[in-house]
Amino acid sequence: MMAYSEDHSALAAEYALGTLDADERAQVEAMMSADKDFTAMVEAWEHKLGVLNQMVGSVEPRPEVWDKIRTATGLAEPQAPLVLPDAPQPSAAPEVSEPAAVGDPSNVIRLSSEARRWRNVATLTTAIAAALVAMIAVGVYQPDLLPERIRPKPRTQVVEVKTPSAPTPSAQYVAVLQKEGGAPGFIVTVDGATKNFWIRKVGASAEPGRSFELWLISDKLPQPRSLGVVGSGDFTARPVLASYDADLINTATYAVTVEQAGGSPDGKPHSAPVFTGKLIETVPRAAPAP
Question: What is the dihedral of CA 97, 98, 102, 106, to 10 degrees?
Answer without folding.
Answer: 180
